[in-house]
Amino acid sequence: MTSSFEMLKIRNAGEWQAYREHDFVCRLGAGTLPEEAFRHYLKQDYLFLVQFARAWGLAVYKSRDLDEIRQGLESLKAIVEVEIGLHVGYCAEWSIPEKALADVPPSPATLAYTDYVLETGLHGDLTDLHVALAPCIIGYGEIALWLQAQPFLKTDGNPYTAWIEMYASPDYQALVRSEIEWLDRRLASLDETAISCLSGIFGKATRLEADFWQMGLDLT
Ligand SMILES: Cc1ncc(C[n+]2csc(CCO)c2C)c(N)n1
User: Fold this and answer.
1) Which of 68, 89, 104, 202 is exposed most, by the fewest CB atoms within 10 A?
2) How many domains, the chain?
3) Ligand 1 first shell, C-beta below 6 A
């Protein structure tokens, strides 16, 4: 049976494909992405992750019971105490010192995406917020596996192999599965009007993810 989350992807098939198979992604896989584009992306991604942490804080606030609070708190702790630190370390390997990250002005594409997620969560409920975050959490896992299945993938001597392997890793894939299961449980009880509204949120967030890749290519 097609899962509820799968339906969101099917309803937004064009947007999803444009995000998953964006030129930035393909060049990462082929190892032909200019390093300057990746550095620009990494710096903006630091700003994105800080706002992503705020989105989990909002998820805690939007929780209806203690179990949901605990779940939001776990995600908030993971991003603040582990993932942002890993990103800072990864940036250092790419010759971007931590001090430089704090001074980076946000690109229009970064602002558009993070504002949209936070705004959606602020005005909506916890399901709206999770759907706005789904292209980020679930998309990166799917992109890594998609890349690993492409004939143009270059592993040896590709400076982006570690990045792809991080999102293809069993640990990350388990996180993706648990987010899909969460969404499937939530979406299962909703009627067509509610699903159609969520599909709009999913489509918009997916387009903003594709714009984020484009921002990396354009160095804007
Ligand atoms: C623009 C952008 N979109 C998605 C991710 C991936 N990502 C960011 S936080 C997170 C979940 C981990 O809790 C994941 C997968 C990214 N780095 N940058």
Assistant:
1) 89
2) 1
3) 45, 48-49, 52, 78-79, 83, 136-137, 140, 209, 212
